[in-house]
Design a protein that fits this description.
Nucleotidyltransferase, domain 5, about 325 residues, globular, 5-stranded mixed beta sheet
């Protein structure tokens, strides 16, 4: 048996798993949330703890790594994380290869998830696809002519920072109206909180009828967090939307519109056969999916044909992609 180690460094969580080559089942799986004040060192320590818990002293044949941020896949060096400080120019591949003494490959999480879905999930049988993860951030990964495509310097697929509304709110990257700023879970939660806070401040100035109308808008959302707006997350917004909350549906629909615009433009530019969507926001329900699909179709040319489907591997897409990376690392090792 050939034991493979798969690692996923996320913006808010770390995950690790082991599997035998050729198997579609995990032999072991460990996951841990990052602390609120996480940095590169804490992420690495958490991951080491997960790895040692899984391996129990056994040496893997190869390691594949998914990282939530820009990566130079050729060198395995992390450029930075948009969500966790301290990851600037960290040679993650070399660190792990030296520590464990086995072939190691590292790539951006969306690229790795695209590879996972292509080899094991919703992209099987498709020679061109674009995988998009919509969660803490929004990223994309390409499979073209059956192979991963990272671009000239590993930055291909950054749909999250495609500007769809130049007059929109400011994104973490410094631009306005990015897909990520409108579509990611944390930003949708932030927008919902701000709307509720602003409307609360306006209530004393309104008459009885207006007050009743505005109290109902967002009431389900308020109820889910028992009035503590700081507890609103992207998941809570999704739950409120499914339960019929108008404000939550408004926020989700705007996010779906932004993503649909991005998908339609990508379809016009590169024309992949299939878009595979993964990440926590894709669990937001029918309203979100309907908006994404409708806007993508309206944005793309009528002659451009494509499918939009959910990821089959769910939250494990980056880990299964990491399995594929580890297999590739093993197969390209020089024979001794």
């Amino acid at each position: 048996m050939t034991l493979l180690l798969a690692l996923d460094f996320g913006g808010t969580k770390q995950a690790a798993a082991i599997a035998n080559a050729g198997s579609r089942e995990w032999l072991g799986y460990e996951r841990a949330l990052s602390p609120r004040n996480a940095n590169a060192n804490t992420d690495l320590e958490i991951m080491r703890s997960l790895i040692h818990s899984l391996l129990q002293g056994v040496k893997p044949a190869a390691i594949g790594v998914s990282f939530g941020g820009p990566v130079d896949a050729t060198t395995g060096k992390v450029r930075l994380s948009h969500h966790v400080p301290g990851w600037e120019n960290v040679p993650l591949r070399d660190l792990l290869a030296e520590e464990f003494g086995v072939p190691t490959r590292v790539d951006n999480d969306a690229n790795v998830a695209a590879l996972g879905e292509h080899r094991f999930g919703a992209g099987q049988g498709y020679d061109s696809l674009f995988y998009i993860t919509i969660s803490t951030g929004v990223g994309g990964g390409w499979i073209l002519n059956g192979k991963p495509w990272q671009g000239a310097e590993g930055m291909a697929g950054e749909i999250g920072h495609m500007v769809v509304d130049p007059n929109g709110p400011m994104c973490l990257c410094g631009k306005r109206g990015c897909v990520e700023r409108l579509t990611s879970g944390p930003y949708m939660a932030q927008d919902a909180r701000e709307i509720l806070e602003n409307e609360s401040q306006r209530l004393p100035l309104m008459g009885t009828f207006q007050e009743k109308e505005h109290t109902q808008r967002g009431e389900i959302l308020r109820g889910l967090v028992e009035g503590n707006l700081e507890l609103i997350t992207g998941i809570v917004v999704s739950e409120a939307a499914v339960a019929g909350d108008d404000l939550a549906r408004e926020v989700l629909s705007r996010g779906g519109w932004a993503l649909g615009m991005g998908i339609g433009n990508v379809a016009n530019l590169i024309n992949p056969r299939r878009f595979v969507l993964g990440g926590s926001v894709t669990k937001a329900g029918k309203v979100w999916w309907d908006v994404v699909t409708k806007v993508a179709r309206e944005t793309a040319l009528p002659e451009v044909n494509f499918e939009i489907v959910p990821a089959l591997l769910g939250d494990d897409a980056p880990l299964w992609g990491a399995v594929a990376l580890s297999l590739d690392a093993l197969m390209t090792q020089p024979q001794t």
